[in-house]
Write a structure and sequence with these properties.
The protein has about 375 residues and is α/β, with parallel strands linked by helices. The protein contains 13 helices and 9 strands. Strand 2, helix 4 and strand 3 form a beta-alpha-beta unit. It is globular. The structure holds pyridoxal-5'-phosphate.
């Protein structure tokens, strides 16, 4: 029996423990100076002017949609090959999610041709996703958004640590959930280069209020006004302290992820496994996931079960959003055949900085056996 190889695990050390403890000792737990420091460090490391720390990426997506002016009756173009938060947040705004297909099995980013097909007078925003940590080239999407006078939201939940200096989206939304490239347990960040949007984000993060609790404690303000609707989507100091530690490591961890992905690709080639590996690997990739596309004839469930019995966890990214009961019932979507065949055949292999190249060999050896047994 091998040692268990998990799909994605957080790397946590003494520094995170100490950082959280320091916050507890300080006595100030909610959004304050540590959050501010985390925002500034995150923005500068990722090449954005501004960052707004939030309680989750889902909260960040919701805020980005609201800041983009998405209202009841509007349409928002979104991927179906993504996490369900992409669609849920659109529906929370009272808007209609319009699903776009992916470009191809080898390049499963959303297709610009689909966006052009599906954009209407009612479209208010378009959301793209850096699926698996492979960065979307944003210039054509910027041109598309400008041409139609709509906002561009890049769901960068998979891409923490990847420098985004050439990202042209109006908003980028990061996730620090426990299985992402860096974590604060729960948490997220909305990044923008637009000062006015940053001010709006900061307001709607905290009930639409014009001053913060800390401002008032310090005597910088005595009351507040509410000029627009908002939420409580704040991050706390404990999470920000953890985030500051993780932020120092995330680029290095991503480099390890790239090496492991490279190893997967080499071994799949050398062993002539009948698998397709999406995307070209380059230095910009955050390699959040290691997806492979199985042969059409293979039984994915049997393969996953076999791998599980060998102590190897695999997963599926994602069940397509448009096929969930709620979405099938309320927002029937047509013309997503590439997404559907990708999602039927996709398998996600373990990838995180806690595994070694030897573990990658173990995964591939067992996958070879599983494929032989399942076809
Ligand atoms: C994880 C994830 C989210 C949601 O992130 P939370 O921080 O858990 O809200 C959104 N989009 C994608 C693509 C994700 O992978």
């Amino acid at each position: 029996m091998n040692k268990d190889i998990g799909l994605s695990e957080a790397t946590l050390g003494l520094a995170e423990q100490t950082a959280v403890l320091e916050v507890v000792k300080s006595g100030w737990l909610t959004q304050g100076d540590t959050v501010k420091k985390f925002e500034e460090s995150f923005a500068s490391q990722h090449g954005f002017k501004y960052s707004c720390a939030v309680s989750s990426c889902t909260a960040g997506l919701h805020m980005a949609l609201v800041a983009a002016g998405v209202k009841a009756g509007d349409e928002v173009l979104i991927p179906s090959l993504s996490f369900v938060a992409a669609a849920n947040t659109v529906v929370q705004c009272g808007a209609v999610p319009v699903f776009m297909d992916i470009a191809s099995l080898r390049s499963p980013h959303v297709s610009l041709a689909q966006a052009n097909d599906k954009v209407t007078e009612k479209t208010r925003a378009v959301m793209i996703v850096d699926y698996a940590g492979y960065l979307v080239k944003t210039q054509p999407w910027r041109d598309f958004a400008d041409q139609h006078g709509i906002s561009l939201i890049d769901d960068t939940a998979h891409a923490a640590g990847a420098a985004q200096h050439s990202n042209l989206a109006d908003f980028c939304t990061y996730s620090f959930f426990g299985n992402k490239n860096m974590t604060t347990a729960e948490g997220g960040m909305v990044c923008t280069n637009d000062e006015q949007q940053q001010e709006i984000l900061q307001r709607i993060r905290s009930h639409g209020m014009t001053t913060s609790t800390l401002d008032r404690k310090r005597g910088h303000a005595y009351s507040y006004d509410v000029e627009r609707l908002g939420f409580n989507y704040r991050m706390d100091e404990l999470r920000a302290a953890m985030g500051l530690v993780q932020l120092q490591h995330v680029s290095g961890w991503n480099a390890t992820r790239r090496e492991l992905s490279q190893r997967y690709r080499e071994l799949i080639d050398e062993s002539q496994l009948p698998l397709m590996v999406p995307f070209e690997l380059d230095e910009s990739a955050a390699c959040h996931l290691q997806p492979v596309v199985l042969p059409e004839s293979s039984n994915r469930q049997l393969i996953m079960q076999y791998m599980r019995e060998q102590g190897i966890q695999t997963s599926i990214h994602y069940p397509p959003i448009h096929q969930f009961s709620f979405y099938k019932r309320s927002y029937p979507a047509a013309n997503l055949s590439t997404t559907e065949s990708y999602c039927e055949r996709e398998l996600t292999l373990p990838l995180h900085p806690g595994i070694t190249k030897a573990d990658v060999s173990t995964v591939i050896r067992n996958l070879d056996d599983a494929l032989k047994q399942s076809t």
